[in-house]
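The protein record quoted in full:

***
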Amino acid sequence: SSSSSSSSFKSCSSSSSPPSPALRPSVAASLPSPGTILLAVLVYDILFLVVPGSWILLAWSTADVIHALYGMWFILYGLHTCLHLAPPPATHFHGLPRRYSRHAVMRVLATLHLAALYLAMCGRLPGLQLLQRAEWEQVLRLIGLWNPTISGQCVPVLLALVLATLQAVLGGWLVKKVTRLDSGSDAGGGVAVGGERVDGAEEERQRG
């Protein structure tokens, strides 16, 4: 009687509680620790605010054409983000992003900006003064390439580029882990019942 009551209790518990996905042992062993994933998600979420903030700070730092592009992109990025606030389809692995911000346009802009600043600074070298000719001062000031300095212009742009790249790398890494979780979950046709993984035939036997 005790065995029959135990089997009936197991059957009831398996039918009442929804099955949770189980991972193949090889997939589970290759995944990082939960603490590592949690830290990566935390840093990614913080950068979600810090990276656009660095663009608007760049736009406010200097009044010229190049820095105005950062402000324009900040507005476009904010509008795009507001229009796509709906979360991705629900999965068993909450908290991990399925889509991530690559910031490709802003990274290209910051890279080209750094290259232009370096070329402008070369105008101080003997024989390259033509890059910073006095008669071009007004035009170069308007563009944002007149007599740039490392601390004043280069370092802020470099920091913004590093932050955007870091978020893109973290996002790609997290999405890759989500893909591994999805591909490795419930791969063998079984589900986790009461903390133990059972295959499909055993599940049907328990339900019957």
Confidence is low (pLDDT under 50) at residues 8-20, 87-94, 186-208. The first strand starts at residue 191 and ends at 193. The chain has eight helices and two strands. Helices lie at 2-16, 25-30, 34-61, 65-83, 104-121, 137-143, 150-184, 200-207.
